[in-house]
Each structure stands twice: as C-alpha cells, then as structure tokens.
Q: What sequence folds into this?
C-alpha cells in the first residue's frame, strides 16, 4: 500500500514535469474512481493548467486554474508517465493527456479515487479527513503524542496506523519505526513513556528520510520500483536473523495487519 514516502515520491516526480502544463484531454474508464460525476470531472480538468502539487498525509492536491484535483492511491494506485503513442492497458482507469506525454492512473485493486474540490475547500477537506501532524512538523512532540494516545488502551502499532495521530504512516513504515525504537508493536499506546514517544518521533523522521532517499518500495513514474525494500530491517523478513541481535524475526497479526518484529530487540 502506498504510504507517505510513495505518495511524496510521486509528488516530487510529477512536480518536475507537470507544473505549468495544460491538461489537453481527460479520459475516465471507471466511473467510481471519481467522486464527482464523470462528465463534471472531465469538464473541470480538461484544458486546465496544473500550477502546484502538494501533499497532506497520503493525499495529493493538484492546484488547477479554479479548483483542486485531489487523489488518494489507497491500496495499489499509482501514476505512470507514458508517451502519446501509449495504448491503454488493463487497470488503466484515468488518463490525462498533455501536449507531448500522458499521465496514466493505474489501480489493480480499484480502491483509489479522485475528486474535484473548490480552491477554498482544501483546508476544510483536510480537517474533515482528521489528519494528524506531518513527521517534520515542529508541533510533533512527545507531549502531543501522549495527549493523542492517553485515551487509547490499544496496541501502539494500531495507533501508528491511525492517520489522525501522525499522517502518512502505513504498515511497512510502522514496523520499521517500532523496530528502530525498540518498542514491541503490542505495547499499549497509553502506557508508553515520554522517552519512548520521543524515540518514535525521531525514528519516524529517520525512516521516512531514508526511504525517500531510496524512492520507497513501489513503482515510480517510469515503472521502476524504489529500492528501499532492500534496506528494510524487519518488514517482510519473517524467519530471517535480526541484523542487530541475530534473533529470528517474527510475523504476527496485530490489529488485523501482518506485523514483523524482533522478539529480543522489541521485548
């Protein structure tokens, strides 16, 4: 599932080629992919210039002439850069044509979505989604986390996946953050000390910045996968030795999500 890193990587790549470019044609091949009516979505994107691309949590905001195009990848959504001779393939559901290339939205799981909102609706949209702080926000402190977590007697893994706490963390990065913080994923969120919360904040930044360096774990605009999967310390390493202590990495279901951790480093 694309997480903050994959969404931010897409934003950076799209930003290099789309700013000040005009959408010549919009094609929608699956109506449910757009929250607006299909005809309205096409009308409000066709012949519009993209002025800015921003991100909040796992959401992307494309600022057009008089509205925002908002998208969320959900499980497996992604953008591809193709030339104008490209012919639509299976799972290509929205295609934006520009003068000399196409941006194709591909989504095998069909959970992603796009919608058009007014320019003055962005902040209310973000508020409605109840998104927590970004990992680089100066307001992300141990006291902030304690306030967020103190009423939740649930596993910390569950709370890291809650987008109202820290926006953008998904399953892969939650495992990596907790491993680096020496915190068991089944530790109760409301019982963690300020010191451990500080570790979570510090390691969230470290993990995200490192993952961005290696372009995440998903295919990029050119179809090539990022290489951060080669640098994961616990996720997808069930049955392998821990790089730190040599213990065998365990996989369990925690909050209905496959969770990887070291039983010794994360007692």
A:
């Amino acid at each position: 599932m694309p997480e903050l890193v994959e969404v931010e990587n897409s934003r950076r790549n799209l930003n290099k080629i789309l700013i000040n470019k005009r959408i010549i044609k919009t094609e929608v091949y699956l109506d449910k992919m757009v929250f607006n009516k299909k005809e309205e979505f096409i009308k409000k994107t066709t012949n519009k210039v993209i002025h800015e691309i921003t991100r909040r949590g796992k959401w992307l905001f494309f600022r057009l002439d008089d509205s925002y195009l908002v998208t969320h990848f959900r499980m497996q959504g992604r953008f591809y850069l193709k030339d104008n001779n490209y012919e639509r393939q299976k799972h290509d559901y929205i295609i934006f044509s520009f003068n000399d290339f196409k941006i194709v939205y591909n989504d095998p799981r069909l959970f992603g979505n796009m919608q058009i909102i007014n320019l003055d609706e962005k902040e209310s949209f973000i508020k409605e989604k109840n998104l927590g702080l970004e990992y680089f926000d100066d307001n992300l402190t141990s006291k902030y986390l304690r306030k967020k977590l103190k009423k939740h007697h649930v596993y910390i893994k569950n709370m890291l996946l809650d987008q109202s706490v820290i926006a953008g963390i998904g399953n892969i990065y939650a495992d990596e953050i907790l491993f680096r913080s020496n915190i068991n994923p089944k530790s109760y969120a409301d019982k963690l000390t300020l010191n451990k919360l500080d570790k979570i904040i510090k390691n969230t930044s470290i993990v995200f910045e490192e993952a961005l360096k290696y372009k995440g774990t998903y295919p990029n605009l050119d179809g090539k996968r990022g290489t951060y999967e080669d640098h994961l310390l616990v996720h997808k390493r069930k049955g392998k030795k821990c790089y730190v202590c040599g213990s065998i990495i365990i996989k369990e279901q925690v909050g209905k999500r496959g969770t990887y951790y070291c039983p010794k480093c994360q007692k």
Notes: DSSP finds seven helices and twelve strands in the chain. The CA atoms of residues 61 and 88 lie 25 Å apart.
